[in-house]
Amino acid sequence: MYKILVVEDDVELNKGICYILEKEGFKTISSYNLTNARKEYTKNNNINMVLLDVNLPDGEGFSFCNEIHEKGNVPVLFLTARDLEEDALKGYEVGAEDYIIKPFSMKILLKKINVILKRIEDVKCSCFEDEFLKVDFTNASIEVSGKKCVITPTEFRLLSELITHKGQLLTYDVLLERLWDSGGQFVDKHALAVNVNRLRRKIEDNNHKYISNVYGLGYQWIG
What we know:
Layout: E1 3-7, H1 11-23, E2 27-31, H2 34-43, E3 49-52, E4 55-56, E5 59-60, H3 61-71, E6 76-80, H4 85-93, E7 98-101, H5 106-121, E8 127-129, E9 133-136, E10 141-144, E11 147-148, H6 153-164, E12 170-171, H7 172-179, H8 189-203, E13 211-214, E14 218-221
Parallel strand pairs: 1-2, 1-3, 3-6, 6-7
Antiparallel strand pairs: 4-5, 8-9, 9-10, 10-11, 12-14, 13-14
Helix pairs in contact: 6-8
């Protein structure tokens, strides 16, 4: 049973989301502020997803999203009334799977949740390894020069797509379709480029290059 942490200060909305999720077979944990959310996240080490508001009584959800991705690969979906493009881009830059504007359709939210969880489960490749980089897809772990490397769920899926299709040019449109719902909010080439550049900073150095940007077309795994 998947466990989802719902961080939303609107009590009625929080309860409504949890009620519908539990009807669909999910287990939920409610938090109404960041302080409690951090406690619940630390206490429950088997959380599979976090639904996170941006505006919370004791801070912004962006910081908590960063903390989550420093510790592991748990996917985060922002549910927020902040509809400015720069806020959405910031959400993607801190590693969110999606940035959903309120009010939203619960049916669409459920679809997005199921698609993301399925993508994570579908990563069946075993391992990529050379003298510098080791990617264990089964255990979702990465080592760079013998040291553990923490990446976001989106970066991990991106890495999986590139390695699985080694040597093949993956166009921007193909990657956007595979990494996010086609109807996602503010998902564009800029968001993709942000994730690619962040991933490259984590897994590449001057002597080890893995991802090639084919200008105007897309990306290719050359490792």
